[in-house]
């Protein structure tokens, strides 16, 4: 199906759905990832914001404009309408409608109006969509209470969370911004309060909101901000003053155009699926929601504590025990809808680790930081090498995201926080802390800890013995550490409070974890042995055999914002042909299809469509080509074959310069004069993309060698 046919098909489906009054899920299945037409935008936005199931209270407005700030409200409303270019005879009624919306919201919520809230910026795109007054009010109310933080003044929780997200994905950039004494609210405050409406053109804002409301993710604004910062990291790192950094970052969104919105949102999803989800449930209720939930306008949500962990005191992102175990377990169960894979680092003292630990946990004794600093640094570097090799080898239960596990008590975990701080100071990305530590993991697996934990000993396990007061006191006496004053000061500076509340039992997680427990146990001993080898011979390249992956780039490999790409390799072939899937889509059982004799290997990925939306998929390599199998939503055992590509049709494979897992395959033919004609392309987000591209390259070279051998053997 051509792009033109696909465009007309979804528009017809949308019009039919709107006419029939479909539910939100059906509407999203049609519109997700697409830029809406002006005539559809008002209805789609209203449905996505929950208007279809909402009982409006706008009819209760008393039509009395007597607020103390009424003159300011009226002036701001007049300024909004003047920007939209309405006919003069319509302006008075529109101003009255907008003033009614703002006044009723202030009265019903007992709020004091201020222009600094940037409500006019939020109302402008809604007015441009031509929503009637009652729907205008409902949509405005839903945006404020679903997507705008209750508290967005300097020091609020939303900005601390933004810093934690940047620290997780790019600690070097985060530390540099901190060193200039620049705080996120200095540049991101207007973006958060207006969903970028105050800095982007109206056309760019509406295109961005098309995707934003379809995401239905209150935290999506943070990932959009993350994209802006990371894409501009080189320029930010070149600035030498805080004021210059703030001015530069603040100006970046103004360059966005409507055509940039799909790529912008696609990259934001790229980071969202690579971020642990615990922070969402930890901080959602304390940051977003109606002012009624916080007791009125005087609430300061930045001081709220969620899960025992104030946002301001968090050293890095938290990971709950159930997410840690679930992420580890789903690595064995396709399709892989999440791109999170944890490498568990148990930082408890040796005697605690030896009394029970996760089978896939790598032991890094945090007490080495005090007792043998050089040994700790060597062990830390060995840890990074073992992790990298485990990820490249697709070792079960080992991923690129480091999750540090402590004992679960404040008095036990000061050194754990120092380990995390040391990693972050070395600009190590993807560092998180297990919330509740080993205690939370132990309680989640308490149905059968003997089989689920390696080397578990009930007699010496601290969690098992915690019910005994005498044993607890004895343990505290045994673990008292005398720390130099300077070290105590450093530990206090990075210490964060953790929570050991019992996690709800998830039988599905428990069963999956149980089924792969034996696999982890066989790998654990191997990791320990390899780390010992590295510590005793840190310069011996043959010990770990870590491969160095070459990166090829040139100064010319630059592009527009969010669009820059650099070559990985380019291959041209004569007689190239591309075979795309056409006609009826073939549905297959994933387990059977991936084990076919003709399948060489397969990679879990997300296909990125032209509209920027990503679909969980598998990139299946065969001896003759590539088969793209898209996972069927709601039916995890099945997949649809949506395209097949011959190896000879692959002309070029490129990656995003700053997003190496975002891969583009370009297909085409080679003319007689040697010129390449690109006829089609696919884009994927592939974990460990270098392995996938290397596998494709090897297949192409192998096919080329076979063709050459066949030609040489053919009699002339």
From TrEMBL:
Pfam families in the record, alphabetically? RabGAP-TBC, Rhodanese, TBC1D23_C
Domain Rhodanese residues, every copy: 338-365
A cellular component term (GO) from this record?
A: trans-Golgi network
Instruction: Reply yes or no: does the keyword Acetylation apply.
Output: no
Localization, UniProt? Golgi apparatus, trans-Golgi network
Just give the chief location class.
Answer: Golgi
Which keywords are on file for this protein? Developmental protein, Golgi apparatus
* Gene Ontology BP, a term: vesicle tethering to Golgi
Positions of transmembrane segments: none
Limits of the Rab-GAP TBC domain: 35-216
Sorted alphabetically, which InterPro entries does this protein's record hold? Rab-GAP-TBC_dom (IPR000195), Rab-GAP_TBC_sf (IPR035969), Rhodanese-like_dom (IPR001763), Rhodanese-like_dom_sf (IPR036873), TBC1D23 (IPR039755), TBC1D23_C (IPR045799)
Q: What's the protein name?
A: TBC1 domain family member 23
* Lineage of origin: Eukaryota, Metazoa, Ecdysozoa, Arthropoda, Crustacea
């Amino acid at each position: 199906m051509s792009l033109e046919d696909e465009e007309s098909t979804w528009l017809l489906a949308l019009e039919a759905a709107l006419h029939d009054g479909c539910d939100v899920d059906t509407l999203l299945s049609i519109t997700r990832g697409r830029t809406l037409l002006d005539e559809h935008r008002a209805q789609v936005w209203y449905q996505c914001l929950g208007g279809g199931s909402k009982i409006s209270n706008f009819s209760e407005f008393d039509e009395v404009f007597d607020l103390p700030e009424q003159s300011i409200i009226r002036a701001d409303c007049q300024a909004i309408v003047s920007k939209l270019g309405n006919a003069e005879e319509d302006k008075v009624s529109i101003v009255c409608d907008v003033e009614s919306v703002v006044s009723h919201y202030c009265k019903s919520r007992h709020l004091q109006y201020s222009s600094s809230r940037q409500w006019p910026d939020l109302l402008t795109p809604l007015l441009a969509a031509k929503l009637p007054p009652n729907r205008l009010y409902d949509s405005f109310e839903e945006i404020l209470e679903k997507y705008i933080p209750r508290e967005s003044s300097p020091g609020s929780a939303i900005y601390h969370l933004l810093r934690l997200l940047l620290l997780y994905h790019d600690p070097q950039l985060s530390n540099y911004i901190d060193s200039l004494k620049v705080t996120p609210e200095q540049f991101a405050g207007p973006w958060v309060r207006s969903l970028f409406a105050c800095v982007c053109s109206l056309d760019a804002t509406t295109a961005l909101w098309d995707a934003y409301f379809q995401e239905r993710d209150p935290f999506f604004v943070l990932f959009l901000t993350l994209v802006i910062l990371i894409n501009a990291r080189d320029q930010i790192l070149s600035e030498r003053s805080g004021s210059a950094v703030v001015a530069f970052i603040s100006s970046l969104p103004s360059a966005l155009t409507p055509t940039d919105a799909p790529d912008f949102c696609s990259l934001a999803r790229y980071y969202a699926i690579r971020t642990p989800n615990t922070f969402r449930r930890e901080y959602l209720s304390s940051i977003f929601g109606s002012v009624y939930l916080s007791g009125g306008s005087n609430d300061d949500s930045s001081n709220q504590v969620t899960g025992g962990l104030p946002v301001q005191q968090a050293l890095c992102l938290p990971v709950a025990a159930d997410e840690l175990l679930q992420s580890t377990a789903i690595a064995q169960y396709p399709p892989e809808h999440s791109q999170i894979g944890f490498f568990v680092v148990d930082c408890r003292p040796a005697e605690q680790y030896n009394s029970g630990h996760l089978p896939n946990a790598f032991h890094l004794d945090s007490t080495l930081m005090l007792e043998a600093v050089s040994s700790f640094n060597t062990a830390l570097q060995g840890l990074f090498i073992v992790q990298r090799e485990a990820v490249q080898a697709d070792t079960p239960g080992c991923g690129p995201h480091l999750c540090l596990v402590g004992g679960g008590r404040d008095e036990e975990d000061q050194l754990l926080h120092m380990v995390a701080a040391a990693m972050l100071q070395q600009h190590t990305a993807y560092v998180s802390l297990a919330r509740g530590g080993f205690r939370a993991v132990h309680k989640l697996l308490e149905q059968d800890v003997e089989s689920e934990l390696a080397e578990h000993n009930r007699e010496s396990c601290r969690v098992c013995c915690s019910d005994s007061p005498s044993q607890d006191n004895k343990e505290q006496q045994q673990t008292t550490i005398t720390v130099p004053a300077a070290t105590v000061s450093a530990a206090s500076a990075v210490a964060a409070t953790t929570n050991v509340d019992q996690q709800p039992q998830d039988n599905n997680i428990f069963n999956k974890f149980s089924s792969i427990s034996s696999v982890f146990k066989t790998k654990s001993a191997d990791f320990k042995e390899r780390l010992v080898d590295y510590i005793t011979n840190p310069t011996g390249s043959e010990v770990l055999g870590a491969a160095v992956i070459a990166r090829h780039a040139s100064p010319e490999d630059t592009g527009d914002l969010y669009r820059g790409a650099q070559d990985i390799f380019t291959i041209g072939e004569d007689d190239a042909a591309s075979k795309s899937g056409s006609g009826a889509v073939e549905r297959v059982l994933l387990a059977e299809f991936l084990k076919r004799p003709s399948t060489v290997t397969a990679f879990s990925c997300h296909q990125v469509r032209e509209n920027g939306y990503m679909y969980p998929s598998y990139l299946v390599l065969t001896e003759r080509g590539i088969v793209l199998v898209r996972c069927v939503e709601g039916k995890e055992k099945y997949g649809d074959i949506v395209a097949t590509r011959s190896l000879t049709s692959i002309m070029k494979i490129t990656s995003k310069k700053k997003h190496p897992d975002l891969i583009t395959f370009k297909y085409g033919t080679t003319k007689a004069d040697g010129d390449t004609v690109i006829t089609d392309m696919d884009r994927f987000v592939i974990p460990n993309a270098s392995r996938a591209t290397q596998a494709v390259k090897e297949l192409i070279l192998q096919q080329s060698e076979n063709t050459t051998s066949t030609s040489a053997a053919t009699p002339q």
